[in-house]
């Protein structure tokens, strides 16, 4: 994994934390959700599950939620994409250490009995 990919992954991780924390604070203070309900609403909303058991009721809360979904789902998707790509790279590196690429993976030819 190169340095640029590591930095991108770190930035995406920080963005996910900021988006979840920012949404939690917003819903706690603006919508008057409890801390747990605010966190729960953010996770359910950004995971696109959206149970509908908790909903924003103020106009500013509804407007914020509209933008929160668009921005947040994009960030979460980019984070999971980077995570899968990173795991694939790590796995490929581990496999290449176990089985060098110059070794043949095909079975050795069998000797025919005469």
Summarize the structure.
The chain is built from 3 helices and no strands. α1 packs across α2 and α1 runs antiparallel to α3.
Describe the structure.
The chain has a single domain (3-98), classed as Helix Hairpins. The protein is built from 3 helices and no strands. The protein has helices spanning 3-29, 35-46, 59-98. Helix 1 crosses helix 2. The mean pLDDT is 89.
Break the fold down into its secondary structure elements and pairings.
Elements: H1 3-29, H2 35-46, H3 59-98
Features:
elongated, 114 residues
- Helicity level: 55-70%
Name of the CATH first level: Mainly Alpha
What value does the average pLDDT take?
Answer: 89
Q: In the CATH hierarchy, what is the architecture at level 2? A: Orthogonal Bundle
Largest sheet: none
Low-confidence stretches: none
Question: What count of structural domains?
Answer: 1
The ordered H/E elements are: HHH
Shape: elongated
SS summary, helix count: 3
């Amino acid at each position: 994994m190169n340095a640029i990919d590591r930095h991108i992954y770190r930035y995406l991780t920080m963005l996910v934390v900021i988006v979840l924390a920012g949404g939690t604070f917003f819903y706690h203070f603006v919508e008057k959700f409890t801390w747990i309900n605010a966190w729960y609403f953010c996770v359910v909303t950004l995971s696109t599950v959206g149970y509908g058991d908790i909903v924003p009721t103020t106009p500013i809360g509804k407007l914020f939620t509209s933008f929160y979904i668009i921005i947040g789902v994009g960030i979460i998707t980019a984070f999971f994409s980077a995570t899968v790509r990173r795991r694939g790279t790590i796995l490929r590196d581990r496999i290449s250490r176990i089985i060098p690429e110059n070794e043949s993976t095909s079975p050795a030819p069998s000797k025919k009995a005469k």
